[in-house]
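DM from R.C. (forwarded with permission)

"hey, sorry to bug you on a friday — could you get me a structure for this? deadline for the figure draft is monday and I only need the backbone to look sensible"
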Amino acid sequence: GLAVFAPLIIIAHLAGVSTWMTVWGAGIVLAGRAAFSVFYLAGVPVLRSASWGVSVFGLLMIAYALISAAI
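My reply, with the result:
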């Protein structure tokens, strides 16, 4: 959730890393978390889990971009 997203975005910003992967990753995280909230309120467990997985994929995209920039 936010405990992982915020530090990744702050580190990316401070490091000056802004690539298509960080931008898309952030968008995917936000869309996944928004969908998660909707599915949670609607009581749809399978789609809730899938949307959580989508947001984790976005986090991994941001982390990969940071690691790639450091190498």
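R.C.: lifesaver. The chain has a mean pLDDT of 94.
me: no worries. The CA atoms of residues 36 and 52 lie 6 Å apart.
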